[in-house]
Amino acid sequence: MTAAPRRWFARLCATAGLLVTAVALLIAPAAPASAHAVLVSSSPAASAVVPSGPEEVVLTFSESVRKVPDKVRVIAPDGSRADRGEPTFDGTIVRIPVDPAGGQGTYLVSYRVISADSHPVSGAFTYSVGAPSAPPTDSGDTGRANPVVDNAVKVAKYLGYAGLALLVGPALVLAALWPRRLDRRGPARLAWTGLGLVAVATLADLWLQVPYTGGGGLFDVSGEGLSSVLGSTFGAAHLVRLGLLAAAAFLLRPLFAGPVGRTDAIILTVLGVAALVTWPLAGHPAASPAPAVSVVVDTVHLGSMAVWLGGLLMLAAFLLPRADERELGAIMPIWSRWAALAVSALLLAGVVQGLIEMGTPGALVDTTYGRLLLAKIGLFGLVLGVAAYSRQLVRRRVAEQRPSRIRRAIVAELAIIAVVLGVSATLVQTPPARTASEVADSAPGYFSTTLTSSLLSVQVELDPAERGNNSLHLYAYTKDNRPQPVVEWKATAALPSAGIEPIEIPLLPLTDNHATGEVNLPASGDWQLKVTARTSDIDQATVTATVPIR
């Protein structure tokens, strides 16, 4: 086959790959992007005591969530399943049908759902019917995370990033900087390795997403689970990536054999940019408060990393050892400008994305995401220092005269960047700092404790445990955790540190072991709550608790 038919065949195959991509895009769900989900409210409310059993439990999340099969449950006081039938998912609302005749006691609601950024969200809370009892346990373990799967996901992310750099660097250098006299087989093998790593990592992501979201082991992959992943935005983005890789493979072959025309170079560039977009579409950026901005800046961030790291690798492994002084004199100034542009874009995109994902400055030190970002910034600063030294060597034309010197600097850059990639692979699997802030903001202001005396135990609940009006609930129990009738309740609240003397709290008995009252706490601090329960004419017990008020 002559060169012209071969090129025509390659473009035809590339078009076929794009058609696969288009099909994957068409089967993607038409759901709006949203943020890492947080449970903002429930009915019944967490720790609430209701007079009769509800017919359904309603969970309301901050953003839309998707179902994980058999991971939303309601456990009755005796340990049996109280939920009846499948829960229904409607955007941010999850409704769980419950048997209203389940009996009195404490119920456990446990859930594991998938947020819009493809990460699982799990949690649990209790509510009580009639009166609290010992909370049951969920044998289904909906919140567990398999550490092997969790680490395997991070390894797959790392391999994908490394493969991207190995693919982009050789392709870019071969297309624009490679001397004609040098053999292309070494860089071509490196690029094929990179393409293979990206493909394998993409397939691994799809496989691992099933046990990652479901909470199982490496091989706990069912047809239903895999179908759910492939039908999600996460799955569609990965299928698109595979299609784009297939299309690009046919155009890369002539590039690795020799120079290509402008049309093929433009098509390869379009395919490369489109493939880069699939990473942010399958992660945090697509679910950020500003998804369009986040996807663009993350694509720039990822592309700049691949150009910089891949180009450095080509310099260290091939150009510096093989090119002569004249060729290096022409190549190094061009590469230096490219590297400066890539680093500037990398830094700017990283700052913008960091501001979006952080939420507040304090999250830099208060959250795992923030601390990982600080580590990445520190390592990036080291890389910039080495890169500045390398740029000075290029400006003084040391690179072409003493290539071993700049090669050592480049190897140092590569070593640090390899660590940066590891931090990045962990970072993309960590809930953004803005999510931690949402959790803190949505967490109910609530105080609950059980105080024990020689006569009885008193469960104390104060809501919302903040300055201003608060509701107090008191429950009395015997030593064997049965309701203890109380003849008379008394309670006071004091704040000695602020000179506030004990405030008497009027109490209203609701049942023979349950009383409630309202109290206004005018200041923040550690309030001293004293409760006295008289169970007969001669028997009474007094218990105290320290209640932090925000």
Summary?
This protein is α+β, with helices and mostly antiparallel strands and 550 residues long. Helix content is 50%, strand content 22%.
Number of strands: 17
Using only C-alpha atoms, the radius of gyration works out to 31 Å
Question: Largest beta sheet: what is the strand line-up?
Answer: 9-10-11-15-14
What is the number of helices? Answer: 13
Describe the sheet with the most strands: 5 strands, antiparallel
General description of the model:
There is one protein chain. This protein is α+β, with helices and mostly antiparallel strands and 550 residues long. It contains 13 helices and 17 strands. The chain has helices spanning 3-27, 147-176, 185-214, 223-230, 233-257, 262-281, 291-322, 325-358, 363-366, 368-395, 398-401, 403-427, 433-442, and strands spanning 39-43, 49-50, 56-61, 65-75, 88-90, 93-97, 105-115, 120-129, 447-452, 457-463, 468-477, 488-495, 500-504, 507-511, 514-521, 525-534, 540-549. Strands 9-10-11-15-14 form a 5-stranded antiparallel sheet, with no helix packed on it. Strands 1-3-6-5 form a 4-stranded antiparallel sheet, with no helix packed on it. A 4-stranded mixed sheet has the order 2-8-7-4. The longest helix has 34 residues, at 325-358. The chain is elongated and about 105 Å long. The relative contact order is 0.09. Mean pLDDT is 79; it is low at 8-35 and 438-444.
